[in-house]
Here is the input.
Amino acid sequence: MLPRFVGRLGVADAVTIANAALGFVAVVVAFVDIDIAARLILLAAVADGLDGILARRYGGTPAGPYLDSLADVASFAIAPAVLAFVVVSEGLGVSLETVTLELGVVVAVCALFVAMAVARLGMYTAYDTADDYTEGIQTTLAATIIGATILAGDPVSSPWLVLAVTGAFCYLMVSRIRYPDLLARDALIMGVVHVLAILIPSFAGRTFPYALLTLGIAYMTLSPWFYWREPAEPVEADVYGNA
Here is the structure.
């Protein structure tokens, strides 16, 4: 007897489910090799954009939006929070074996990140119906910036900075700031840099992780006020997941 999803889920849904699996693997690997874990999160972000492209090309299914949000919880809520926890706890020299105030702060911020990401994903699915913008930082973008930060340098040497960035995303993900969907040409540029940061992160002094981090921060800080588009030009709605 075939599983009940046979004939009900499409190719885009398969990529979405793979995205969730990548999130789990990133969590496991984070305690062994933080760089590989960061690359897995970036790969999950690529899958998150790819499933939207496939859905538009081959058609989606009624389960698609729900699967997308569920997968994003794994890859862009739990996984980046675990990465941040590992980096910050190692940098501060704290561990779960000894309960300290610093450990409590780190756990609280990372747990809040997960909570706000889940809230943002639920609100996006239920309320974000606009065609050209979304409210609040996309969970995919937050995870991408955290992953690119890890690949770009030695985050363990700046644990409080990583913790502060993680804490800032807790608000930005549920803020009312409007972030525009990327134009197709800009989505392509960021997609290429994204893939190169995964494949060859150490090339030329970690050029591509730095470039991805720069593009992500530029979009996060400038696009709500300065990004523009021509009305007739199509947008790439699923870049950075918009969820």
